[in-house]
Write a structure and sequence with these properties.
- This protein is of the alpha+beta class.
- The protein has one domain: Alpha-Beta Plaits.
- Helix content is 40%, strand content 19%.
- The chain has seven helices and five strands.
- Strands 1, 2, 3, 4 and 5 form a five-stranded antiparallel sheet that branches.
- The longest helix is centred in the last third of the chain and has 11 residues.
């Protein structure tokens, strides 16, 4: 079984989409094994998105991610990383396929409702960022 991280972003939390996103994850036969509700500070968002520091969208992204509550969660299942990536769709909702979370629920390229780890190494790092005692 593989584990990955998914974050429900502030735009989706604000629009009361937590339940809908969890329903979609569970309908995809993936299991949520850890979850929390929190608000990131700007400095925590900057640390989490350190890999993007210096890119043109970095400030907008970290400002947005620290603008409201988020719901990070650990999701487990066979091929959980690729399964979640398929479920959420492409980063830009205009390029996502119908039926994906981002196509159906996102507001914009930045306010795209969810974040998900894109590789085993990033999944491990991101899970430990929000859940330091979680075993990957």
């Amino acid at each position: 079984m593989e584990k990955t991280l998914l974050i429900i972003k502030p735009d989706a939390v604000e629009r009361s989409l937590i339940g809908e996103i969890i329903r979609r994850i569970e309908s995809a036969r993936l299991k949520i094994v850890n979850l929390r509700y929190m608000k990131m500070t700007k400095s925590v968002a900057e640390d989490f998105y350190e890999v993007h520091r210096g890119k043109p969208f970095y400030d907008e992204l970290t400002n947005f991610m620290s603008s409201g509550a988020i719901v990070p969660m650990v999701v487990m299942g066979d091929n959980a990383i690729s399964g979640i990536r398929e479920l959420i769709g492409k980063t830009n909702p205009a390029e996502a396929h119908p039926g994906t979370i981002r196509y159906d629920l996102a507001v914009s390229h930045t306010k795209n409702s969810v974040h998900a780890s894109d590789s085993p190494a990033n999944a491990e790092r991101e899970i430990h960022f929000f859940f330091p005692k979680e075993q990957v």
